[in-house]
Amino acid sequence: MSDKNNINTLSVKPDKSKKAKNLLRDYSILTFATLIMCVGMHFFRLPNNFTFGGVTGLAILLAKFMPFSVSALNLVFNVALLVVGYIFIGKSFAFKTVYVSLLYSLVLYAFEIYIPITEPLTDQPMLEMIYAICIPSFASALIFNQDSSSGGTDIIAMIVKKYTSLAIGNALFFVDCLIACATFYVFDMETGLYSLCGLLAKSLVIDLVIENINTCKYFNIVCENPEPICDYILNNIKHSATIYNAEGAFSHNKKYVIMTVMRRRQAVQLRNFIKGVEPTAFILISSTSEIIGKGFHSFDY
Fold it and tell me: What three-state secondary structure class fits 240?
């Protein structure tokens, strides 16, 4: 620390293998999310003709009039929209989306061949709609959180989000609304009402899941001895911290304020550590889901 400057920032040295580990983690999450999305689509959404928008919803509508399967139409539409995503969003997004789109179409096609379903699993459409909303929406949120998409109109929603102030769930709603409304004319009133209701719920679930995933804890720690706390943040939690020089308003004693941000699980570890080494420290902990900077999200997020 320096008395000359009131702010001193401590940072973590970059790990050479961290990029490869992050890449493996990202694609593992994308694979898991794509698989559970296919489960929700094949077993709950497609048999009930629920059309919550998107390319899959458009494919469900067109499959009624064309001699092609839902998976085949889904693949064709995705290829065209992937080109658009590459142009407007970037190469990294395009590579991840190509992976998810191809895996999604192939798994859905495999389900159609080896586990064909021609009618709903139960006679409870409301129950099946809940699963048709929650499972794919949870998967979509995981995929969006990796700066990717499952292709289709999700790409358009990502473009809208990038160039406007709309949240991803709201962008998806506006993009998919026309497709969902077409269900009234292609199928029947009941299916149309379920689809429109599902579209509204889908947008809310995606935004809630993304916000919950990204929730972090923001610490302001007022203490007299910042060294052991900063050392724990840097070496154990692997995050950075910023130290402010401060002064007590009543005692006029010299104090330090440590500012840092971390995931919720790490926040519990830090809180317990401070309790042991600096029990007189004053700690303010806030929740936040929008962190922009090194170690979190960039301005392109």
Answer: coil
Dig out the tokens for 207 from the structure: 């935004």
pLDDT tens per residue across span 204-259: 787 788 778 778 888 999 998 889 999 999 988 888 888 999 888 888 888 999 99
3-state secondary structure of 247: strand
Measured distance CA(9)–CA(259) in Å, rounded: 9
Which residue, 195, 196, 199, is CA-closest to 46? 195
- The tens digit of pLDDT for each residue in 176-186 reads 777 777 777 77
CA distance 47 to 45: 6
Average pLDDT over residues 270-283: 89
If one counts every other C-beta atom within 10 angstroms of the C-beta of residue 96, the result is 19
Alpha-carbon span 133 to 199, nearest angstrom: 8
C-alpha to C-alpha distance for 283 and 264, rounded to whole angstroms = 15
Query: Chain centroid to CA 209: how far?
Result: 7
Are the C-beta atoms of residues 245 and 174 closer than 8 Å to each other? no
Cα R_g (the chain), whole angstroms: 24
pLDDT digits (tens, 9 = 90+) for 45-62: 888 877 666 676 777 777
What are the beta bridge partners of residue 262? 217
Rounded distance between C-alpha atoms, residue 218 and residue 124, angstroms? 44
Distance CA 41, CA 139 (A): 11
In this structure, what DSSP letter does residue 298 have?
A: -
The DSSP secondary structure of 78-132, one letter per residue, reads HHHHHHHHHHHT-HHHHHHHHHHHHHHHHHHHHHHHHS---S-SSS-HHHHHHHH
Q: How far apart are CA 81 and CA 74, in angstroms?
A: 11
Two structure tokens written together for 147: 């700066």
Residue 242: helix, strand or coil by DSSP? strand
